[in-house]
Design a protein that fits this description.
six-stranded parallel β-sheet, alpha/beta, 5 helices
């Protein structure tokens, strides 16, 4: 029976996450500001925190760092964190925030369910759906690939 905490000031995020993750035995809690996340975690440690990147004056990066600092000081247990990113360059900040996973918006139910399932089972999830396509580098004619000749 997972307990999922959703943090966003955008009602559509709460609606989309709830509709995707709702199920028998799943508890879905919502907070609408960044500073409300730590008290919500202290009152009942969630099995997963889904954090929106942009939340007023304290977004997902700051929240993630705060939760990890509290965990390191042994005032809070481990909370798996899934950050909802706005754009590919935000991955750099997500890596620095010690999140367990991230997902690019717009959200789609399949990726969100896959990410939640992975984090709830103790794994990670790093969305690669919007990575640039690999570029094929042509090999000059008359050379053998890998030989340098």
């Amino acid at each position: 029976m997972p307990d999922v905490l959703i943090a966003s000031d955008a009602e559509w995020i709460h609606r989309d996450v709830r509709s995707t993750l709702a199920g028998p035995g799943t508890t879905l809690r919502s907070v609408y500001s960044g500073p409300a996340v730590l008290p919500a975690c202290l009152s009942a440690l969630p099995d997963l925190a889904v954090l929106d990147l942009q939340i007023g004056n304290m977004g997902a990066m700051a929240i993630s760092l705060e939760l990890r600092l509290e965990e390191g000081a042994e005032r809070l247990g481990h909370v798996p964190i899934l950050i909802l990113l706005d754009r590919r360059p935000d991955v750099y900040m997500a890596r620095r925030s010690d999140a367990d996973g991230w997902l690019m918006k717009p959200l789609d139910p399949l990726r969100l369910r896959r990410a939640a399932r992975s984090l709830l089972s103790g794994g990670t999830y790093f969305d690669e759906s919007y990575l640039p396509s690999p570029i094929a580098v042509p090999v000059p004619s008359g050379t053998v690939e890998g030989s340098g000749k």
